[in-house]
Amino acid sequence: MYKGIKVIIDQSSALCLGIILLLPMGIIAILVKVTSKGPILFKQERYGVYSKKFVIYKFRTMYVEAPEVSNQEFKNRNDFLTPIGRILRHLSLDELPQIFNVIKGDMSFIGPRPLAESDVNVIKMREKNGASQVRPGITGLAQVNGRNNITDEDKAAFDGTYAEGLSLNTDLKILFRTICNVLLEKDIDKDSIDLKNKGERKL
After folding, report:
1. Does residue 99 have a pLDDT over 90?
2. Angle at which helices 2-20 and 22-35 cross, to 10°
3. What is the rounded distance in angstroms from the CA atom of residue 127 to the CA atom of residue 130?
4. Which residue, 112, 122, 176, 192, has most beta carbons within 10 Å?
5. Cα 182 to Cα 162: distance, rounded to the nearest angstrom
6. What is the model's pLDDT at position 75?
7. Which tens digit of pLDDT belongs to each residue from 37-66?
8. Count of CB atoms within 10 A of residue 164's CB?
9. What range(s) does the Bacterial sugar transferase domain occupy (predicted)?
10. What confidence tier does 150 reach under pLDDT thresholds 50, 70, 90?
């Protein structure tokens, strides 16, 4: 029942939130543009519901000179963060453009994080445990239980648990814990950006 109306709740909430945040997002866009050369948005193909690809949006947080290597090889990625990008990541504000992904129906507010092509193992595990059958989210159960500090197996397990027990109550709990984590600066390390992904597009 809830799964059927979740997309309606998400899209209507995202539309209202998008209108409210239009001015702040406009200011962020200007700051990104004037403080470093390059596009305002970072665009990249990710795997969504039923493992279908879509383009995810984020505010660009790195210099365009950042090397094109996978996240596993990119040990010093913080050296390539722009000054405004460092702040955006610290406050998780680089994720705000994903509100438009929610409006489009590509994503949900709550759900497993959308995966890049390099996350082959997690993609396969999600397909086995049913996590790929729900829309990916801006935040999710794995993100409030360790984020990048847990193994791929644990991430997939949390995603499977979420998909199996999908409910409004669970979503509200995850939302509350996400807000607390951001305010307390806990587990706010960003999910990986696959710079090697050839599906990246810039605006």
Report:
1. yes
2. 70
3. 6
4. 112
5. 21
6. 59
7. 999 999 999 999 999 999 999 999 999 887
8. 11
9. 6-183
10. confident
Listed residue (24, 32, 65, 56) closest to 190, CA to CA: 56
Q: Give pLDDT tens digits for 66-92.
A: 765 445 445 566 778 999 999 999 888
Closest by CA to 45, choosing from 178, 109, 136, is 136
The domains of the chain are located at: 2-202
Report strand pairing: 201-202 vs 41-47. antiparallel
Distance separating alpha carbons of residues 41 and 58, to the nearest angstrom? 6
Q: How far apart are the first and last CA of the chain?
A: 38
Tell me the C-alpha distance between 27 and 191, whole Å: 24
Pinpoint the alpha helices (H) of 36-167.
83-90, 98-104, 120-129, 152-164
* Tens-place pLDDT, residues 114-146: 999 888 899 999 999 999 999 999 999 999 998
Q: What is the dihedral of CA 28, 68, 193, 72, to 10 degrees?
A: -140
